[in-house]
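Closing statement on the BJW sub-project.
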Amino acid sequence: MTILPPEVAQQLRQAQRVVVLTGAGISAESGVPTFRDAQTGLWAQYDPHQLATPQAFMRNPKLVWDWYAWRRDLVTKVVPNPGHYALVAIEQRVPNFNLVTQNIDGLHRKAGSHEIVELHGNIFRVRCFTENVLVEDWNDLIGKGLPHCPNCGGFLRPDVVWFGETLPVEALAHAVKASQSADFFLVVGTSGIVQPAASLPFEAIDRGAMLVEVNPEPTPISPYVSYTLRGAAGIILPALVVAAWPDQA
Ligand code: BJW
């Protein structure tokens, strides 16, 4: 059983500006596979170079579409878990809150979080591969082979960020600014190796924030954190909320 240091709960309760960075691990208990977990991660089964780069899409758009259609179907059927809901509770209790997620599954919004920055896009949106603009009502375009842009006829693609692509400029700028002014930074369920998201916790420590990691496994961020809470987000985060606000439990 993970012991929750009382200082962490106390600092969270007193924090004015909280930033949470989430990765695939927070959705694992909802049944969404992570990327890099040895047996169950997506990259244990699939090659990211064949599926998550613009070059892969140009080589074989159908393969990439089919893979994302399978994942979209999967995340449509799952529901948020206690970890997602605990972050909603934190948002409701602190003066200033930003949730920065690398996840594309939409589960934070489904849980009820509001201040969400999606760094790697969202699997339920598509954009034109050629013009790079979002396309609404794209479901009607599916069914006759690969969907094409109603404007230019180019291929549509999932609105997610692949390797080698830049992150949405506004979302990244917002995440960096929030991290730089955080006094409590929680990093949850990410392996902390994909840049630039993995640098955000360091923006926060550089300015004196308390950095707390929730993850069953050590990560490259672990040596720099003030506290590590080893365990599943769906157990640790609700316990942290109760410890920080026992009067509201
Ligand atoms: C639990 C749990 C439970 C399990 N509870 N926890 C600087 C240095 C070196 C390389 C680069 C660099 N800057 C940029 C790069 C290149 C590249 C990069 O970072 N490569 C690294 C792999 C080395 N970055 C990029 O290309 C980015 N673009 C960019 O920077 O543009 C400018 C540029 C380009 C090129 C060169 C230089 C500059 C774009 C990155 C896009 C990432 N895209 C993906 C796919 C998104 C769409 C999709 O989902 O299909 O995003 S890859 C994948 O990794 C996905 C994730 O969001 C991301 C992070 O993964 P995450 O969330 O951390 O998941 P896992 O599986 O890795 O970890 C899960 C964790 O959960 C584990 O720790 C578990 O222990 C834990 N866990 N159960 C709590 N119950």
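The radius of gyration is 19 Å. With this model delivered, the sub-project is considered complete and its resources will be redirected to Aim 3.
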